[in-house]
Amino acid sequence: MPLFEALKLAVSAILAHKLRSFLTLLGVIFGVATVIVVVSLVEGFNVYVDEKIANIGTNAFAVRKFSIEDFSSVEAMHAAQRRNRDVTLEDMEHLRERARGGAVSQVGGKEDAVGDVKAGATTLFRVRISATTANIADIERLEIAAGRYFTAAEEQTRRNVCFLGWDVAEKLFPTSDPVGQTVRVDGRPYQVVGVGKALGSVFGQPRDMYVGVPLSTFLSTYGMRRSIQIVVTSAGEGAYHEAIEQVRLLMRARRKLAPGERDSFGIITPEAINELRDNIFGTIQTAAVGVTSISLVVGGIVIMNIMLVSVTERTKEIGVRKSIGARRADILKQFLAESTLLSLAGGGIGVLIAYLLAKTVAALTPVPTALPLLAVLAALGVSGGVGLVSGVYPAWKAAGLDPIEALRAE
Asked: pLDDT by residue (tens digit) across 25-74?
């Protein structure tokens, strides 16, 4: 029997019992939909980390007081607090002077705090104050909606200028152009020089509620005794690791660390952040997919039971087919095609439901989702495989029926 003929017979058998076929599909539908939704949520989180957290900038890495390894345990954190010194503005200037040319392209700095921002009668509480050097706008590829970012000259002279996030500008100046206006940050006046493009929110956290100010102005106002973050970019992708080693050697020499002594600072790379993410969420992801996959096993058992019932109901039909020349392989192929088609149909419906659920979640909540094509293909492949495996025993039982005994069946 040609494969196409077996598929035609399988479709006819499925359509002959529409309600039973649909009820049989439910297990596979819910199984595939659950697995795909979990994968979509996990993949959305991974994409967010890659694009928004791990993406420090093009060919960029950060020098901070703590490294990723310092967060591995409470003991490691306490040891790092005793060992590590603050990363200061002087450290940044040292790297700027000594790392010019070669592998290093740019060196910038940043620090965050929280403060109140006021314009006229409107006050916004607990707004993120993002203090940076002027070149951070280039390093982090900041997009500007209006005006400009503050300049290196304004940073060096500690000017009271600021750059507003989209939400802050909308709330403080709903009907007027904010550029050129004055806002008060923790009671101190700042002139608005620009507004950033809207970034939206992720996981319920707004990304446009910030006020950017020059780092030098911030430190002179809030105190120099702070540990800042230094952001370094390499001259190119090929020079990235060389730039990391150059900065590490300069920082170790500045802090007079002996050979073999552990770094008293941390170098944060996108790879390190992704590795930490994989260590934390890798096991959770595997367990979540494994647990939800149990429903696929249940769906396979349901298909097997229904196919066994189908074999019993169609015993006489099988006898007729065998009596007119159908071989064991033909009967086997017919029932395997039916179970596989059933499961594939359930998998397809499950993927569609999961896609719609993921889009709904992304539209109604701040949780990001992503549905990679590979996951869809894998889900369809697994569902088809479940149907194939579940149909083996019923198909083998049907193929093994004696035609004379089958014809006698009522």
From this structure: 777 787 778 777 777 777 777 666 665 554 455 588 999 888 877 666 66
Sequence letter at residue 142? L
CB distance 336 to 391 below 8 Å = yes
Rg (CA), the chain: 32
Q: CB neighbours of 218 closer than 8 A, spacing ≥ 6?
A: 111, 113, 129, 131
DSSP letter at 192 equals E
Query: Which comes out higher in pLDDT, residue 333 or 239?
Result: 239
Helix (H, G, I), strand (E, B) or coil at 258: coil
CA 130, CA 137: separation in Å to the nearest integer? 12
Helix 315-323 and helix 328-364, axial crossing angle in degrees, nearest 10: 130
Letter for the amino acid at 237?
Answer: E
Higher-pLDDT residue of 61, 335:
61
The Cα 46–Cα 281 span in angstroms is 10
Query: Cα angle vertex 197, ends 171, 199, to 5°?
Result: 85
Measuring CA to CA, how many Å separate 227 from each of 1, 129, 137, 193? 76, 15, 20, 27
The Cα–Cα gap between 110 and 136 comes to 8
Q: With the CA atoms of 132, 173, 141 and 233 taken in that order, what torsion angle do they form, in degrees rounded to the nearest 10? A: 0
Query: What dihedral angle (degrees, nearest 10) is formed by the CA atoms of 316, 318, 321, 326?
Result: -160
Cβ-based neighbour number of residue 244 at 10 Å: 18
In three-state secondary structure terms, 375 is: helix
Q: How confident is the model at residue 75 (pLDDT cuts 50, 70, 90)?
A: confident
Q: Residue 357 has which token pair?
A: 């659920």
Q: 358 pLDDT band (50/70/90 cuts)?
A: confident
**Angstrom distance (rounded) from CA 289 to CA 282:** 11
pLDDT at res. 7: 63
The pLDDT mean for the chain works out to 80
Give the Cα separation of 337 and 115 in Å (integer).
66
Strand-pairing partners, residue 233, are 60, 106
Q: Cβ-count burial of 181 within 10 angstroms (0-12 exposed, 13-18 middle, 19+ buried)? A: middle
Interatomic CA distance for residues 307 and 391, integer angstroms: 7
Whether the CB-CB separation of 299 and 24 falls below 8 Å is answered with no
Instruction: Check if the beta carbon of residue 214 is closer than 8 Å to that of residue 155.
Output: yes
Q: How far apart are CA 22 and CA 385, in angstroms?
A: 19
